[in-house]
Design goal:
Structural class: alpha/beta
Radius of gyration: 25 Å
Organism: Pelagicoccus enzymogenes
Pfam family, one: Fucose_iso_C
Shape: elongated
Number of domains: 2
CATH superfamily of the largest domain: L-fucose Isomerase, Chain A, domain 2
CATH class of the largest domain: Alpha Beta
Distance between the termini: 30 Å
Oligomer: single chain
CATH architecture of the largest domain: 3-Layer(aba) Sandwich
InterPro entries: Fuc_isomerase_C, Fucose_isomerase_N/cen_sf
Strand content: 15-25%
Protein name: Fucose isomerase
Helix content: 25-40%
GO cellular component, one term: cytoplasm
Largest sheet: 6 strands, antiparallel, barrel
Length: 474
């Protein structure tokens, strides 16, 4: 997963008529916190500028050069204001560095009994000036929940951790490489998308005809070392006792070729033509292979849903855990805030307590159930839920999204395939938004509460219009 061990650039703002020792104290506070959180800081040494702060244009040039030299490592920048700071110095640093990464602005609080010249900070005011300058320069930035906050405050620790996740999402989406395997199913206009709009945001799509994948799979000998190894991997992944050996071979062949396609093209995610050509021409489902890839944080979506798997990848970056593509599928009796989430069987096994490899009965009515071995069967237990969807709005030439949070429940559910019960506050309002705005029937779920991270990344840094359903008040 990209940017999982990113570094954070740190700018310590300073102003000459405030106590310099406040900068030294701030460096110690930030260094201590970064060490506790396992973060690496890229910052000026105390000997490179006065106490390692940024105050003058010359300081800004030195800090910018440091950041540029570490461009590949830096995922975001923290602006720390121990005192009022120099807003021009901060803005100049960011402009000259040109990293185009997320920026978090933090200012220290004053103590009511220490407003003398020895300890006075005025960062409450200075933060406003820094933000004003960044807005003038067109530099996007994030804010802490409290206007001024000490680095040791629990709310800032959470703010910083959320900011690091925002950096992962933004850095991962920019330059994301998606593989589109085959053509979308003819009946699924809902998964159409604009490759050109995605490309404009740094997201590229590598296509391959399904015949190339199936042709390469058919050439692999059933007793070859790579196929035998993949079969053992499948058996270790989920209960495969119901699957005939011949079908395991076909599943393994697909898995090996898809793995090679991902590696050869350095892909972050894949969207696969899962039906009906695979079943008709190869005799099995590709669900297990997609599930295994998603579990390994290389997300894979069915029905060539490219923007669906982009959403999976974004949620995975935010949470650090696998995502799943699901259908908003059924009402849950008469309960207005609950519904059934469903798919044939390609969810990562993190969502399936007792996953077993079986068939896809609905698809089997069309292609023969014996040709659908490879679909996973399992129920998702209760957990936290973040849901959402990215789409290309081709009419208006932009990317849009919706996100929200809820819960997965243990409510009774008697059916097959991959299934879950979701509880979403004001679900009926959400469904009206999905329908009114023309979003797809596919949605992505992640066992986390990370909607705020996605909202910040999508809107502030990627410029995507994002609806946050029932967002909590800040």
């Amino acid at each position: 997963m990209k940017n999982s061990n990113q570094s954070i650039g740190v700018i310590f703002g300073n102003r000459d008529f405030f106590p310099d020792k406040l900068v030294t104290e701030a460096r110690a506070d930030i260094s201590r916190l970064f060490e506790e959180l396992g973060l690496e800081a890229v910052m000026l040494g105390e000997e490179e500028t006065k106490l390692g702060g940024v105050e003058t244009h010359a300081d800004a040039r030195k800090c910018a050069e440091l950041f540029k030299a570490n461009r590949e490592r830096i995922g975001g920048i923290l602006v720390c204001l121990p005192n009022f700071g120099d807003e021009k110095g901060v803005a100049d640093t960011l402009k000259m560095a040109g990293l185009n990464v997320p920026v978090l602005i933090q200012g220290y609080p004053d103590d009511l009994d220490r407003l003398d010249v020895i300890r006075r900070r005025d960062a409450f005011c200075g933060k406003i000036s820094v933000c004003n300058n960044l807005r003038q320069a067109g530099i996007a930035y994030s804010l802490t929940r409290k206007h001024v906050v000490h680095p040791s405050d629990a709310s800032f620790v959470e703010d910083l951790q959320q900011f690091v996740a925002v950096c992962r999402v933004v850095g991962g989406i920019r330059g994301c490489r998606i593989g589109a395997v085959g053509a979308r199913p003819g009946a699924f206009n809902t998964v159409r998308y604009s490759e050109k709009i995605l490309e404009r945001d740094g997201i590229s799509v590598t296509t391959v005809d399904l015949s190339e994948i199936l042709g390469a799979a058919d050439k692999l000998a059933a007793d070859s070392e790579v196929i035998v190894s993949k079969i053992e991997e499948i058996k270790a992944y989920a209960n495969a006792s119901l699957v005939p050996q011949a079908k395991l071979v076909q599943m393994a062949r697909l898995g090996v070729v898809l793995d090679n396609f991902v590696e050869e093209n350095t892909l972050d995610a894949t969207a696969v033509q899962c039906w009906t050509s695979v079943q008709a021409n190869h005799g099995c489902n590709v669900c297990t292979s997609m599930s295994m890839m998603s579990e390994e944080l290389s997300p894979s979506a069915c029905e060539v849903d490219v923007t669906g798997v982009l959403t999976m990848y974004a949620m995975q970056l935010a949470s650090g855990s696998p995502s799943a593509l699901v259908d908003w599928n059924n009402n849950y009796g008469s309960e207005d805030d609950k519904c059934v989430l469903f798919h044939c069987g390609n969810w990562a096994k993190s969502f399936l307590k007792d996953a077993k490899i079986s068939t896809a009965p609905i698809l089997g009515t069309v292609v023969g159930e014996e040709n659908t071995y490879g679909a996973l069967d399992g129920r998702t237990p209760a957990s936290t839920l973040t849901y959402g969807r990215i789409t290309t709005d081709d009419t208006n030439g932009k990317i849009r999204a919706y996100i929200g949070e809820g819960q997965l429940t243990d409510d009774n559910l008697k059916t097959f395939g991959n299934r879950a019960v979701a509880e979403v506050p004001k679900l009926q309002k959400l469904m009206r938004h999905v329908c009114r705005e023309g979003f797809e029937h596919h949605v992505v779920m992640n066992a986390s509460h990370t909607a705020a991270i996605l909202k910040e990344a999508f809107e502030v840094y990627l410029g995507w219009e994002t609806y946050y359903h029932e967002a909590p008040e800040v």
